[in-house]
Prior knowledge:
By secondary structure, the protein is mainly alpha-helical. The chain has seven helices and five strands.
Amino acid sequence: MEYKYLPNTFNFQSILLRFGTIERFTELQIKYKQQFERLLFPILKIDELQAIIQSASTTIPVIDDAAANFYRAHSMLQNPYIYVRNNYHIEALTDEELETLNSQDDISPEFFKSTFDRVLFEEGDIIFYGTPRDETMCRAKCIAFEFAYDQVKCESVEQLVKIEKVIARCKEALERNMQSANIPVSLMIYNGIPKRFKDPSYII
C-alpha cells in the first residue's frame, strides 16, 4: 500500500538510500508506531475516552478511510474516531537504534522514551496536519491526536453542536491523562471535508 503523508515532511531520496525501499521504511514505521502506541494505551485511559463518545446523545458518523489513512490503519488505540496523527520519522534514529527496531520484536519502553521526541516531533513551532486552517494547526513538538468524524453525514446543526461538545470533553480528558506522563499533546479535528485520504485505486 502506498500511503499519502500529510504533511509530507519526509526526504524520500535520503530514506531510499538508507532503507533501500519505501516498503521497508513503511514496515519499520508501522512497527515503531504500534509498539509506541501500546505504551500510550494505559496512559491515555482510552476506555474513559470511549465512554465520553458513547455518552453522546447523537450519532457520530465514522469516516470510511481506514484503508488509505496510514495514521488510522495502523492505530493501536482501538477507537474509530481518535488516533495518533504524527508522522513517524524513524529516519531520525541512529544506526544502533534502527538496528534495535529492526531486530527486536518486543522492544523495551526505555527505547521509546529516549527516541519518541526525535521520531514524532516536527521542526519549528507550528505545523498543519492537512489543509492549513485552525482545525489542523498543531504544536510541532507534541503528540498530535486527531478526532475524525464524517460531517457530510451529519443531518442537523444540533447534531454538530453535540459532537463538538463530545470532542471538547475528549480533549480535556486527553490533556489531563497525558499530563501525568509529562507529555505535551494536542487534539485536532478532521471532519472529512475535503476527504484527505483516498485509496490510490480511485485517484485518476
